[in-house]
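Entry 14. Ran structure prediction on the chain below.
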Amino acid sequence: MGTDCPYVLYTYYGGIALRVVAFIGPSGTGKSHRASWVARERGIEFIIDDGILIKGNQIIAGSSAKREMTKIASIKRALFVDDKHAEDVKNAFRTYRPDAVLILGTSEGMVEKIVERLELPDISEKVYIHEVASELEIKQALSTRREQGKHVIPVPISDKKRLFRLFFRSFADFQKERERKLPDNRGKVRSKAYVQLPWKIYNI
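Output, structure tokens:
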């Protein structure tokens, strides 16, 4: 299927017609911050970002790559390399029966790998960060990630219980990592997970 076709109909989990849209841009350029807007403009309720599946205002499956202790483990989590992790998300698709999903990735290859691992249909549309954000906004997002280590997860305030569980797990992981940190790594900014809420961004 080519990217010129805005819709792809695919018999998926009992006759569901599923449309897959990719949102692509380098790490730290503000994809997660704009994901909800991109999804809303295309009538999409479901978003896959960094190993988690989000429906509207809830994290419904998966686990965040931001909780992993190493970069390699984080990448594997985001790509659903672990069979149990991938099956968890596939089961959510079977349960919720979506008609469309937005997948965030740092490259076309990354999104295609996620599609393959989750056994989703071909990507019908590719949206790039420079199409929805100005050069200045992208530079500001990169600067924020580099200097403050902020990362936004597009989850509204209504998912409070899951948010606070994620907070305590992330804090515990952060404490463990600090204890294990080698001398030559001192001073480096660790990427933190932030949750995007209606009025402001809270560090988790």
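The chain is about 40% helix and 20% strand. Will compare against last week's run tomorrow.
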